[in-house]
């Protein structure tokens, strides 16, 4: 998993509440054999019309936000099914951080498993950040170590669980965590080779 | 005094790598079996994070779940496009990550839980995992074996370990011996009927007692295969002389000096006399009659001599309606449309022999389509050497190539809505063998008898 330390990038404003996982990635894209490649269908029904043409009014289709790495959005983001395809598609598109007043639990957990930073802030802060994101010139600076979001001279601090912060800063997913036991695994393997040479 | 341990305790402790703050243990995984359906995203995950398969030799790949069972499948006959893509993906992944794969033209290809032991890849005292719930099958050899999800598949590929909490110990003690004509399948169905489909939840079940001692290793596999249907993630039977004999000379089994050392270790793999279990069930084998399921859960099971139950609650009502049965109707009057002999529960050579013995020189009833799907290319080869294929075909059975087939209907082998099947597989859930299909679970001999009669039948009248 990619480490998350500091992210300096454009933020796309999506002022809408209750964006569910079906909106993030509709179910017809779940038959895939991959986690990658889902980025092109991220927000599929919002992003394309029935003929598959881009909808001009959708934020990620606008030139300024095509390469946004941050999403500022309404409350209860990621509700619906538990599909890990939702964070997979965000990440594949390039979104590494989602800022919202609140998130659905499973989606929130799935973000950390995939190296995405979900940031919870107050509704006043979301409002300010939404405005900041709507100015196409602005860049957001997200510093996980400092737990701060900075736009221009304005800074907002956020809370995050210490253990999750540690995992993200060091790029540790479940596998990464287990690999911190590398020496124990190696010791075990040596002992095993000695005692059970037949394996 | 040292603490008395169960077989499960012993294998667990022998695989403990580390204990984490979060309360789970890190367990070493000796053997990992993979197939085309539950692995694509796991390999994709490795690729995305730039990881390797830690020990490619500890992993063995096979194509089984969605392959066609048609004899010309390698030419694309009865091959569906999305299945083809999954198969092709597994090929590429195994190639890229250095994992051995038994492809469809390989005689060793077959159902993942049949080929593991057949190759000696599964061994007593090992930990075995696979992205498939019926991995419990391998417990028949005293291996701690259980199914895992795709993210865990990736975890095992990358680290050769799993993080998990230890489960509880349960013992199913079956006293006495099975009557003639009553098989391992009848025994496990009867056990599930007794404990229910949640009876083993949160536990590893150790099966012990005379009945299991008497069973062949293949029969024991049938029992452990369905431990998951009794709610247990794993089943265990202590290895014995029969187990050791089974592995002698198998490709991955130890040789020479190693063999002696291995056997010495394997002999320690049993529950200490007096060790305690969190839960215990005692059943008598003496009165078990051939079993058949009537409903849509493996616990909906009865002796073939009984009648469809009366409606006692909503679940029973729904099951009877779905199955298209009449309360009080004798089970032996229930007409069938199809017969499926196969699946990791019952597709080994002994199953083929048991079914062939019943149908030898007879004909499948006119109203029935019957198929035999051997569990592996080697089972098929052995059966053909013994002339069993001829017996089946003369009787009117279709003789197929190995794979999961109509056990889960991910290929073209499936029931049509409303069709009724006598099946040797393990799940009779709604739609399991095809949307609207109706499944009655039973032993291979019982399924063979049903094929001849055209309705559910008591095999003892055909022996
Ligand atoms: S035969 Fe059925 S139960 Fe066994 S592995 Fe295949 S699909 Fe699963």
Description of the structure:
The complex is a heterodimer of chains A (199) and B (463). By secondary structure, chain A is an alpha/beta fold. Chain A is 33% helix and 16% strand. Chain A has a single domain, classed as Alpha-Beta Barrel (Aconitase, domain 4). The mean pLDDT of chain A is 92. In chain B, strand 4 (59-62), helix 3 and strand 5 form a beta-alpha-beta unit. The mean pLDDT of chain B is 96. In chain B, the strands form five sheets. In chain B, strands 5-4-3-6-7 form a five-stranded parallel sheet. With 463 residues, chain B is α/β, with parallel strands linked by helices. Chain B is built from 15 helices and 19 strands. The chains are: A alpha/beta (199), B alpha/beta (463). At the A-B interface, helix 7 and helix 8 of A face helix 2, helix 3, helix 5 and helix 10 of B. Iron/sulfur cluster (SF4) binds next to helix 4 of chain B.
Which sequence of strands runs across the widest sheet of chain B?
5-4-3-6-7
How many strands appear in the DSSP assignment of chain B? Answer: 19
What is the helix/strand order of chain A? EEHHEHEHEHEEEHHH
In the sheet with the most strands of chain A, the strands line up as: 1-6-7-8
Whole-number mean pLDDT of chain A: 92
Give descriptors for this structure.
heterodimer, A: 199 residues, alpha/beta, Aconitase, domain 4, 4-stranded antiparallel sheet, 4-stranded parallel sheet, 8 helices, 33% helix, globular, B: 463 residues, 5-stranded parallel sheet, 15 helices, 19 strands, 31% helix, binds iron/sulfur cluster
